[in-house]
Design brief:
This protein has helices at about 10-15, 80-90, 105-115, 140-145, 160-170, 195-205, 225-235; strands at about 20, 35-45, 55, 60, 70-75, 120-125, 130-135, 175-185, 215-220, 235-245, 255. The protein has about 270 residues and is α+β, with helices and mostly antiparallel strands.
Length: about 270
């Protein structure tokens, strides 16, 4: 399999254009990502505090990386492939429905994917794609002005969050900041406890990219309920939380997949 091949050939670039209103008989309890507000959590860990030889996962020693698992860096990821992975991994959490990933921002999303420091890794089980990790760099707002997709959330910017982490941890400003922008596994693999193998390996790889590094990420209370504990067990520090307005672009609508009889791709 080519490193940059998506798991299947479904064209999610067309799916995003095909929506219908939620019918009156839809469940009364919509997914959590459809709430009017969500809690955003900022997490980070510095290389100073990262010790790959002594880290525990859920209180247990890390296991050796199994032979049937592999991780490869993909080359030339375009918007359609990125959105494909975003759907298969994060659709249940509303990832592809956020305003920043709407079609009107795809040009800037492509620039983001192509930017120096942006890297896309595919997690594989028996050489079949099981998930992905997209990482990028965080600099000052001036460094990134106009180059990246806009941040439609209110509250702290990523640059501001990182500065807070550096200040609270008495870390110098020259520390390189790497963001785990998106990471996860498809539904077929979420209950196989692959995270305990892939994420520590990914974290160690990122820490090795600089002598003085910080790995930053943010997550939401609308994501997997166990993700916060998992990151804490890896040594991440939850250093800030915010309550923000929803940034879901298709509220009160549901997606029609190609298997749906009502699916009709735009001409």
């Amino acid at each position: 399999m080519s490193n940059d091949e998506p798991p299947n050939q479904t064209d999610y670039s067309k799916i995003a254009k095909c929506f219908k209103p939620v019918a009156a008989n839809e469940p009364e309890n919509p997914p959590s990502y459809m709430r009017e507000k969500f809690t955003k959590l900022h997490l980070a860990i510095s290389k100073r505090d990262f010790n790959p030889d002594s880290h525990l996962i859920n209180g247990r020693e890390k296991e050796a990386f199994p032979n049937h698992l592999s991780m490869s860096k993909a080359i030339d990821i375009d918007v359609d492939k990125f959105m494909h992975y975003l759907h298969i991994v994060g659709e249940q959490y509303g990832w592809p429905f956020r305003e920043e990933y709407s079609e009107q921002h795809h040009d800037k999303l492509q620039a983001f994917l192509n930017a120096a420091g942006s890297e896309f890794y595919v997690f594989e089980v028996d050489y079949k794609p099981a998930g992905f990790c997209f990482v990028s760099r965080i600099g000052s707002p001036q460094d990134y002005a106009g180059r990246f997709i806009p941040d439609h959330e209110t509250g702290m910017s990523k640059s501001e969050a990182v500065q807070m982490f550096k200040h609270d941890g008495h870390l110098p400003n020259y520390y390189t900041v790497i963001e785990i922008n998106k990471v996860g596994f498809s539904n077929d693999y979420t209950k196989k406890k692959l995270g305990k193998h892939f994420i520590p390996r990914m974290l160690q790889l990122l820490m090795e990219q600089g002598n003085d590094s910080i790995v930053y990420l943010n997550t939401r209370d609308t994501n997997h309920p166990k993700v916060i504990k998992f990151y804490k067990d890896l040594g991440f520090n939850v250093f800030a939380t915010e309550t923000l307005e929803s940034d879901i672009a298709i509220q009160h609508q549901k997606i029609i997949t190609p298997d749906d009889p009502e699916f009709s791709p735009p001409q």
